[in-house]
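Chain and backbone:
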Amino acid sequence: MGKLTDKALRAIKPQERIYNIADGDGLSLEVWPNGGRYWRFRYRFAGKAKRLSLGVYPEVSLKEARDSLTVARATLRGGVDPSRDRKEAKQALLTAEDRDFSKVAADWLAYNRPGWASETYRKASYVVEQCLQPFCASAEVPIGQDTAHATSLLLGTSTNSKSPRVS
């Protein structure tokens, strides 16, 4: 393991296309045409090829990337997908307030507002406030889960049918 050196990393130049430089044990540095350099761990889990980001070089040094690789490989040896493990850890940090439908909807509207025309924003706000919030006001949004299924449960519709269920 470990054929890359710090000196070699500093000398890496971008090319026209994205390319990878392998370090060993699934660790590689992905170099982008814009000069971005990203640590990646390539692995297989349950028969599927997967990729985990370990940080951006030079903020994450070669030693830190290798340490992160060791942790990810240990997680993998334990029968746990490191990517899923990371997502679950992030989700566990969210508070109930972060999952409140009103807060998530307001954040979504604020995020999209700069790219929308004023009329589009007005219509989206109307739909959220008049149509969705009455159903979801007290609901916790299951962030990172099967949102189509969760939304159908909140709104009383079926994911198998294209029309809403009338109660």
User: Anything to note?
Assistant: Helices lie at 6-10, 62-77, 82-93, 101-112, 118-136, 147-155. The mean pLDDT is 83. The first helix runs from residue 6 to 10. The chain has six helices and four strands.
